[in-house]
User: Fold this.
Amino acid sequence: MKPHLDRGDVPLFNRYLARGSVYFEFGSGGSTVAAAKMKNIRRIYSVENDATWVSKVKTAVNDKDRVTIFYIEMDCGETEWGNPGSRSTYDDWVRYSRALENLSSEEALEIDLFMIDGRFRVACLLNAFARMSDAALVMFDDFSDRPFYHIVLDYFEIVERGSRMVVLKKRSVPPPDQTLIERYEKIAQ
Assistant:
């Protein structure tokens, strides 16, 4: 299982993964497996909404002791990749984008590398803003060609660009307000 990234972004992903020590990702898969192979990564947290996919990822990960997968049921069933199912609720979507709240404040502040590659990407990152360290870096996949995601640039600055992925760092600005976050918690992109 390999990361599902644009070919031009794989070196960028690997370079930042090699610098990290505690990794948190929204959307599991090949990125989870790659992180588990890195000896410098001492802890991995992954958020996933597809039970079948969770099973495949767990099978592919060789060092399960370092990996915690937060499975958020969203009744995916037979839908397009990662979309919430027809019986999923707004509460399910909120639990997904707020999954960082499953960790203590101390655990959240230890995270030095995030990967945004699942559903509700804008909401995930905006929700993480107040709980993440100022030094943490964020790899955001499919960012360059999806202007819808660019609202996060009000709160994060681009450190490096790949072909579709960008690496972001927090700006020294107040956190996003709850009204803005709630708007994006309703959009699965």
Remarks:
- The CA atoms of residues 155 and 173 lie 7 Å apart.
- The domain at 7-184 is CATH 3.40.50.150 (Rossmann fold).
- The mean pLDDT is 88.
- The helical segments are 10-17, 30-37, 51-60, 90-97, 105-110, 121-129, 178-184.
